[in-house]
Amino acid sequence: MDILILILRIIFGVFFTYAGFMHFKKPKFFNGFIPHFLPKLATNYVFGFIEFVLGISIFFNQTAKNAAVGIFILMTLFLPIHILDVTKKQPVIGSKKLAIIRIPLQFLLMYLSYLIYISI
């Protein structure tokens, strides 16, 4: 189990660090995901920073447990946005099929972050 958790921490760390970085490199890509009532650029940068910090934090034993909780909360916050995307005529993610697949994937990420949390 220890090896599985280490692999998950590495995957999550790389994924979230990269995703957070991309919020700064290509902010316009994320505009469609951000609800209209929120300021696009500020929201994008805030969540990009959060993703980046959580991605880095999950690599370190001292912060990994808190990072796993943070990732779980972040995935919970993103869930309604992804569900809303499924209901759009043309989902931001691309195809309707991809938007639908992303919902169970979100729950998988939440479960895996929970596994990391309870294993540390």
Verbal overview:
There is one protein chain. The model has no long low-confidence stretch (mean pLDDT 95). By secondary structure, the protein is mainly alpha-helical. It is built from four helices and no strands. Helices cover 78% and strands 0% of the residues. The longest helix has 27 residues, at 61-87. Helix 1 (2-25) packs across helix 4.
Number of strands: 0
Strand content: under 5%
Counted by DSSP, the helix tally is: 4
Rg computed from alpha carbons, rounded to a whole number of angstroms? 15 Å
> Mean of the pLDDT scores?
95
Helix and strand content put the structural class at: mainly alpha
Q: What level of helicity do the residues show?
A: over 70%
What summary fits the major beta sheet?
none
pLDDT < 50 runs, ≥5 residues: none
Shape descriptor: globular
Order of helices and strands: HHHH
Distance between the termini: 11 Å
